[in-house]
């Protein structure tokens, strides 16, 4: 147990050491990142936190990156404990709050990978907000630590507009 706690503390401090923030308007985007993927993976997942320091709500409308498809997903767990992901058309960022995209919850899906995401790589992305506008960010690829969700073998279901929530 002590080893697990030390490992978690090390992982947290390592993540903070690599933290990077981006700002647009009243919004601060902290630590855009993706986990490394297996060589055969066709999808990867991205995570970040958006803090709205303003007095007006904003909304994340779109995420762009150089992949065939990029979508914001959320995860719900049914009564049997089975996780299902679904496309989120927009993500509210309430005034004075932080919205965190993290494993097992809201996240960005990078679909159609033609090569693995490798630790140490970086790739550009653009977050499009309703009020604050566009924000260019850099996603850093980090090694998977602890028990992060692996999307490489998951069925992402029907991702056309009729499946959106």
Structure characterization notes:
This protein has one helix at 2-17, and strands at residues 21-24, 27-35, 43-52, 58-65, 69-77, 83-87, 91-93, 98-101, 107-111, 122-129, 133-142. It is mainly β and 165 residues long. The protein has a single domain (21-147), classed as PCu(A)C copper chaperone (Immunoglobulin-like, Sandwich). Strands 1, 2, 3, 4, 5, 6, 7, 8, 9, 10 and 11 form an eleven-stranded mixed sheet that branches. Mean pLDDT is 84; it is low at 1-17 and 159-165.
Record keyword descriptors for this entry:
single chain, 165 residues, mainly beta, Immunoglobulin-like, 11-stranded mixed sheet, 1 helix, 45% strand, globular, disordered N terminus, disordered C terminus
């Amino acid at each position: 147990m002590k080893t697990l706690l030390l490992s978690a503390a090390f992982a947290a401090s390592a993540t903070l050491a690599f933290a990077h923030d981006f700002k647009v308007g009243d919004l601060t985007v902290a630590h855009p990142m993706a986990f490394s993927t297996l060589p055969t993976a066709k999808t990867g997942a991205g995570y970040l936190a958006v803090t709205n320091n303003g007095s007006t709500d904003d909304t994340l409308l779109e995420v762009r990156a150089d992949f065939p498809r990029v979508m914001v997903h959320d995860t719900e767990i049914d009564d049997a404990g089975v996780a299902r992901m679904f496309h989120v058309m927009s993500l509210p960022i309430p005034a004075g709050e932080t919205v965190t995209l993290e494993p097992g919850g809201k996240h960005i899906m990078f679909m159609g990978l033609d090569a693995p995401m490798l630790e140490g790589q970086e790739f550009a992305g653009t977050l499009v907000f309703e009020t604050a506008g566009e924000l260019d960010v850099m996603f850093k690829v980090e090694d998977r630590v602890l028990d992060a969700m692996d999307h490489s073998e998951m069925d992402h279901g029907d991702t056309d507009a009729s499946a959106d929530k």
